[in-house]
Amino acid sequence: MAISSPDRAPAGLSAAQVTSFQRNGYLTIANALDPSTVRQLLDETHALLTSFTPGPDHPMTKFRTGARSGSSSSSSSSSSSRSLEANSAAQDEYFLTSGDQVRFFFEQDAFDASSGQLTRPAAAAVNKIGHGLHTQLASFRGVTQSPANAAIARSLGYRRPRVLQSMVICKPARIGGRVPPHQDSSFLYTNPPSALAFWYALEPATRANGCLRVKAGSHAVVPVATRFVRTDAPGEEGAVGAGGARTAFRALRPGEARFPRAEAEADAPSTTTTTAGLAADHQGDAEYAPVEVGAGTLVLLHGNLLHESALNTSETSRFIYTFHVIEGEPEGGAAEGGATYDASNWLQPGPDGFQAL
């Protein structure tokens, strides 16, 4: 990997890079992965897809990434901003227990609307593979748990960085779904918010194949308004999931911080309290800048940053690998610093907790 060095500790981000991230809410680092590492991750991903044959017991879970042009659909998001279409207990279980597994989730448009059958080979119909690649696969673990990534987290002020939700997002040719505007901290919520995405391009990401689009600076002025929660978690009895799903969005409650720094609360502008409303308020194309990057580029995304991506109508896929970091909670509790990750979040840690970065 180009971002780590065996003979000296990585230096992390420069002062200029930290300033840029703090100002814009995102940062691109070209050639963060060398070509051989990119090829290794792509080869392993393609091997996973090639060997994937959904049997009769597979729940065929789909992720709806937003509507095609002209459609009235307004559904949004799981933690990657995709909303789970979970019409059965099996689909719910498959999703909610995927945090330390390697599981496959389909694109909405990969199915025939009448028959419900796949219209293409399974390998070309997958939306993403997740959500525990860093716990199950050595190559992804090595990229994730690199000294360089730990140094980056330290540069941005993380004292106890913890890794969660790793996945390959495939954005397949012609059907890779639109991802509407969202904030990652809505889906991996800590109090106060602390989510940070490490987003590695494994293939060129362009306007044509649905590159990231960001609303620069929004992280500093748009508070987290909603949380994606488990409806069966203690205290979430009032949250109702669509179609009986065990996940739902709800507005933040008193005491749940909307910005990483408590002092920002006093200056927080008013905003809508639903994810659909948040997307509607910030969906103007002119407000979002495309982030076109080459393979091997790392994009860092602040948890409060509004970002989206368009439908992939091109003939090329847009594979990326991403994982998230949150600030861990010290033994003495959040009162001693750090952040609290509670039982309401959709993704729950195993008995050993989330891995330290």
Short overview:
This protein has 357 residues and is α+β, with helices and mostly antiparallel strands. It has helices at residues 15-24, 35-51, 89-96, 133-136, 138-144, 147-155, 275-281, and strands spanning 26-29, 62-64, 83-85, 102-107, 126-131, 161-169, 179-182, 196-201, 212-214, 226-230, 247-251, 289-291, 298-302, 307-309, 320-327, 355-356.
Features:
357 residues; alpha+beta; 10-stranded mixed sheet; 4-stranded antiparallel sheet; 21% strand; disordered N terminus
Structure description:
The two termini are 16 Å apart. The chain is of the alpha+beta class and 357 residues long. It is globular, with a radius of gyration of 19 Å. The chain has helices spanning 15-24, 35-51, 89-96, 133-136, 138-144, 147-155, 275-281, and strands spanning 26-29, 62-64, 83-85, 102-107, 126-131, 161-169, 179-182, 196-201, 212-214, 226-230, 247-251, 289-291, 298-302, 307-309, 320-327, 355-356. It has seven helices and 16 strands. The strands form three sheets. Strands 1, 2, 3, 4, 5, 6, 8, 13, 15 and 16 form a ten-stranded mixed β-sheet that branches. The chain has a four-stranded antiparallel β-sheet with strand order 7-14-9-12. The protein has a two-stranded antiparallel ribbon with strand order 10-11.
